[in-house]
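Recap from last week: sequence in, structure out.
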Amino acid sequence: MSLGEHLGELRRRLIISICMIAVGAVVTYVFYGFILHVLQAPYCQAVTHTSESGQCAFFVTTPLQGFSLRLNVSAYGGIVIALPVLFFQLWRFVTPGLKANEKRYALPFTFATAALFALGAFVAYLTFPHAMRFLIDVSGPSSTIKQLLSPNSYVQLILLLMVAFGVTFEFPVVLVALELAGVLTPARLSSWRRWAIIGMVLFAAVVTPSSDPFSMLALAIPLLLFYEASIVIGKMLGK
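Predicted structure tokens:
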């Protein structure tokens, strides 16, 4: 392909991706009530578990705050719904530059990327009630401090946590891709294991938006397992 053909292909892939995000945003906007209820569930679990009264409603302080929340959730939802298509478009843009024996990995990589992102977001969602309980307990006794949350700050926190987990769970895809490209080898990854463990734990502590130990461990442990799995997969692909 010439440079102009590459740019034309990139434009085509971007247009398809943007259209899919727009469709996903419309779907999220229509089902906003259900999605907000799902996002609110971890907070309700945390409040019920603590000494609070069990009231888990959010409070808005400006007339436009609720509408801006709906738009933000719709934007995030559009990206999440479009993720499989986005990853597929990315691989479709890359595959023309690959050899015939390399193109066969495009579909497995697309599926693995989307599945791992969804798994990471799901793990973050399951972990979030424990994170909220920790944050509520560490803030002080309920007789002194009452929880009065803004929906924007809460939804932003849980969505950031889910996105952080989803992106981080792409770690094995990156390692396997580097192994296939010959940049890394399973033997080299094995020799780096001790330093890698320290680095992954520190990375989990820094990246976790809620800064609680539950979320940090929930992110660090899968990273360690993914590292070992990447070594095994690299050895199998090498054969």
